[in-house]
Specification:
Layout (H helix, E strand, L loop, with lengths): L1 E8 L3 E9 L5 E3 H66 L2 H8 L8 H6 L2 H7 L3 E5 L5 E6 L6
Antiparallel strand pairs: 1-2, 2-3, 4-5
Pfam families: CHASE4
Protein name: CHASE4 domain-containing protein
Keywords: Membrane, Transmembrane, Transmembrane helix
């Protein structure tokens, strides 16, 4: 026996429901099958869209992020290189002076020494952003060492 029923659903969408009874008393509803297939199709469609977006759209964002990180790293390396060049020039400038050689050869060195007073006042540390000055002799023995806190001074 086949019965045809008419009903409305979701503001104007007309759904026809067909119920069919077989010998074993099993009732198959077209409406349930339709919603099941529709649900499966929606899940498959959303999954497909997600996979495609992830592969093409999000992949390009990852590439852009990686390029940005490389660019920032190159900027940092350039800045460090410039700072090292500045420090190298400063060290070479002091190491080439006769005054520095005479200072290293002296045995009685204090913070009141004329070389220290003229070459390493607080303004030298501040202007060059030095936190430590260390002078050693040819044997590697520390002749003069002085630290400076840039944040407090």
């Amino acid at each position: 026996m086949i019965r045809l029923r008419y009903g409305t659903f979701l503001e104007g969408i007309v759904i026809w429901s067909v119920e069919e009874t077989f010998n074993g008393g099993i009732i198959l509803k077209l409406q349930k099958k339709l919603f099941t297939y529709l649900g499966i199709m929606i899940i498959v469609s959303i999954s497909l869209v997600y996979v495609l977006l992830y592969k093409y759209l999000l992949g390009s964002y990852a590439d852009l992020d990686q390029q940005d990180a490389r660019s920032e790293m190159q900027d940092i390396l350039y800045t460090v290189s410039e700072e090292l060049d500045t420090l190298r020039n400063y060290v070479l400038n002091y190491s080439a002076r006769d005054e520095t050689y005479f200072f290293i050869d002296e045995s009685d060195i204090t913070d009141d020494h004329p070389f220290i007073q003229s070459n390493f006042p607080d303004s030298t540390y501040t202007a060059n952003r030095f936190q430590l000055v260390l002078i050693t002799n040819a044997e590697g023995k520390v002749v003069y060492a002085h630290g400076y806190d840039l944040q407090q001074n």
